[in-house]
User: What shape does this take?
Amino acid sequence: MLTLCFCFFLFVVLLSSLQENVLSCNQIDHDSLISFHQHISNSLPLNWSSSTDCCHWEGISCTTFNNRVTHLWLPEKGLSGTIDHPFLANLSFLSHINLSHNHISGPFPVTLFHSLIHLKILDLSSNRFNGSLDSSFFNRASNLISFNVSNNSLTGPVPLSICSGSAFLEILDLSMNKFIGNINIGGCSNLKVFRAGFNSLSGWLPYDLYRLRALEEISLPNNRFSGPINDSIVLLSNLTVLELHVNELSGELPLDIGLLSNLEQLQLHTNSLNGTLPPSLMNCSKLKTLLIRNNRFGGEISNLDFSKLQLLEAVDFGNNTFVGKISNSLCLCRSLTAVRLAYNRLVGEIPPCMASLRSLAHFSVSDNYLSNVSQALNILRHCENIAVLFMSRCFNDETMPNDDDLSRLGNGFQNLQILTLGGCQLKGQIPSWIAKLRKLKVLNLSYNKIYGPIPAWLGDMPRLFVLNLTQNYLSGNLPRELGRLPALNSDNTSSDLSSLALPFLFDAQQYNRLFNLPRGLKVGYNKLSGNIPEEIGRLKLLHVLDLNNNEFNGSIPRNLSRLVNLERLDMSGNDLSGEIPESLTGLHFLSSFSVANNDLQGEIPRGGQFDTFPAASFEGNPKLCGYVIKRRCDHVVVGTQEEMVPESDEEEEPESSWYNVPFGLGYFVGLFLAVIITLLFNGSWRSVRADSTNYLETRSV
Ligand SMILES: *[C@@H]1O[C@H](CO)[C@@H](O)[C@H](O)[C@H]1NC(C)=O
Ligand SMILES: *[C@@H]1O[C@H](CO)[C@@H](O)[C@H](O)[C@H]1NC(C)=O
Ligand SMILES: *[C@@H]1O[C@H](CO)[C@@H](O)[C@H](O)[C@H]1NC(C)=O
Ligand SMILES: *[C@@H]1O[C@H](CO)[C@@H](O)[C@H](O)[C@H]1NC(C)=O
Ligand SMILES: *[C@@H]1O[C@H](CO)[C@@H](O)[C@H](O)[C@H]1NC(C)=O
Ligand SMILES: *[C@@H]1O[C@H](CO)[C@@H](O)[C@H](O)[C@H]1NC(C)=O
Ligand SMILES: *[C@@H]1O[C@H](CO)[C@@H](O)[C@H](O)[C@H]1NC(C)=O
Ligand SMILES: *[C@@H]1O[C@H](CO)[C@@H](O)[C@H](O)[C@H]1NC(C)=O
Ligand SMILES: *[C@@H]1O[C@H](CO)[C@@H](O)[C@H](O)[C@H]1NC(C)=O
Ligand SMILES: *[C@@H]1O[C@H](CO)[C@@H](O)[C@H](O)[C@H]1NC(C)=O
Ligand SMILES: *[C@@H]1O[C@H](CO)[C@@H](O)[C@H](O)[C@H]1NC(C)=O
Ligand SMILES: *[C@@H]1O[C@H](CO)[C@@H](O)[C@H](O)[C@H]1NC(C)=O
Assistant: This one.
């Protein structure tokens, strides 16, 4: 029994010492890592305790045969500081380094890697490295396979001979830095993924590029590359991604581009490419994304046969000079979710077969010469996923599709969130089928010939937060029911259009303009009359309120001051009378304000944003007075002389205003008494002024 126990004890001791030997990490590696740790700080603590085996530390792996550290894998650990110290140079078996998504700064750590002939994978992306890349690094890293320094602040030219030392390189990602000059990737014959977008690279696309037959992805967007796309690109038969957008490329597409039979993504938008699209492009049957907007491509669009592009999801031909009719073959691309043909010279009607595009969510044909808007809506209502429909300046001088035209709307457009039909000179009334679009957030019917009333039911549209009816022939009152609009009253969430924004369809600026639309009610340039309803004051989420150039009369509702988010308020060109409510000075975000050309009177309020509005905001109201328009109000009422501008300026005012009318002494005494008395009993300057101006007005009439 004793022997057995003793044997067991021995066995345990042996085992633990064995384990210690097998797993205890190399002392040099251990010390190097400890030094490394001391020179970076990390917000997420690492369990790197000296008393434990470093091969068991977080982010560390070792070889099994000699316990040397191979992996330093610490992405997203909140590391900061610099690593340009020699501590890692002794980790001579290191092959995999991932320090991505940290906050490491300073120069690219060339010295670290002097002995790193084993290095295969280096990911330093999404840090704050600056300075330039040194070619000596690539000369030594002879086994490098993957190199990612994207999303840093590296500068200068890219080293001349990246692959002269690193011939096995397969992945090279230099994107989102500040590299300049051209780029030499000759000799990178194993390169599969090449990304260098969002830099300031220039010159023609390097000839070497066309020789690297292993390339699967070329992504060089947002640089300043110029010149043509060389015909030899068609030799890169493994290419699946070609992104050259936002550069200065010119010339035509290679005629045989169809040889790129593996191509899934072709993004060439925002260049100066021209000519017709080679028919062979339509042989790239794996294409999912085809973005060529903002170029000078042209030609008959109906010549393009889309029938082989069964996988196509997004096509953007916007802002080119394509002519002709939309091809029926487009309907065969059953996976289409986004189609943009805007800003071309297309004619004819929307092909009826488009009704079968069940995935279509975004359709834009603005700025073309299409016809038959009723037909278009009747077809597109079958696309049950359609959420965005841009059709402004597309049809001309037709009739606004009415309820009869869309009588079978049924469940159509139940996902529609944006509908624009502006600038089409459409005649007719606002049709009630719009009331059925329960998810509609943005409705733009501006610049048409729509007449009749603004229907009260618009106020019950649950999500609507942009209503643009600018420049039509609308008449009658502004319905007080609009004050109910839920998305402008309280529902902050519904005004989010971000889910609709397919970023690849837009340049940043355009994207912001379209999908951060300010919540607005725009009914300017119509024939609306009556009072501005008090209820509008409930729309406290409103940012823009345009009531200008109508026939509104009565006074400005005081409670517009409850529109606390308002940035623009335009009431110019109406028949409004009475005073500008002092309460409007409480609108702290108001940066644009106009009541020009009305019949307002009294003193222009001062304080708040009102101190920033120019005279033009108030011009054309002969009975208004105040500092900003250089027209004096009554002395007693307004306060000290010094605040007012000199007489000489005022004399230039032609329609010499009411305060110049010579009043008798009795009036002044009377007014003075009235002021003093009101002051005593009311204690408020505001009421003093209001009362005295009323008094003045009755006297002067
Ligand atoms: C350190 O943490 C990692 C996981 O993050 C764990 O796998 C490892 O066992 C830990 N090592 C020590 C010595 O505690
Ligand atoms: C690297 O290791 C050697 C011993 O092998 C040591 O003398 C030297 O100081 C180490 N360098 C660093 C930077 O840790
Ligand atoms: C580095 O780590 C990040 C985060 O885990 C990961 O997304 C990335 O793929 C890794 N890099 C490499 C080259 O594997
Ligand atoms: C490089 O790293 C970034 C993250 O920082 C990642 O988005 C990108 O896909 C990586 N590049 C490659 C080629 O894997
Ligand atoms: C770039 O890095 C920053 C911070 O380092 C990070 O927030 C951002 O997501 C990164 N961008 C990409 C595209 O990886
Ligand atoms: C890198 O950034 C640091 C500050 O983080 C700055 O002091 C240094 O001059 C920069 N180096 C270069 C080459 O831009
Ligand atoms: C192209 O891809 C195929 C399949 O992945 C591969 O066998 C072939 O070697 C690649 N061609 C080149 C030139 O790398
Ligand atoms: C295309 O590239 C080849 C080299 O690959 C070159 O000889 C030829 O001149 C280039 N063609 C044009 C039009 O630039
Ligand atoms: C395309 O542009 C080039 C200049 O970049 C010009 O020489 C050529 O004639 C243009 N082709 C067409 C079809 O307009
Ligand atoms: C498209 O491919 C087919 C066969 O794959 C070929 O016969 C045809 O000529 C190609 N069309 C064009 C325009 O290159
Ligand atoms: C059309 O493309 C040109 C050239 O890229 C650009 O300058 C222009 O702003 C674009 N127009 C629109 C409306 O996007
Ligand atoms: C709405 O109307 C304004 C005129 O005030 C016009 O400039 C604007 O482009 C229209 N469209 C949208 C979506 O606001």
Remarks:
- The domain at 27-131 is CATH 3.80.10.10 (Leucine-rich repeat, LRR (right-handed beta-alpha superhelix)).
- The pocket of 2-acetamido-2-deoxy-beta-D-glucopyranose (ligand 8) is lined by residues 207, 210, 228, 230, 232 (CB under 6 Å).
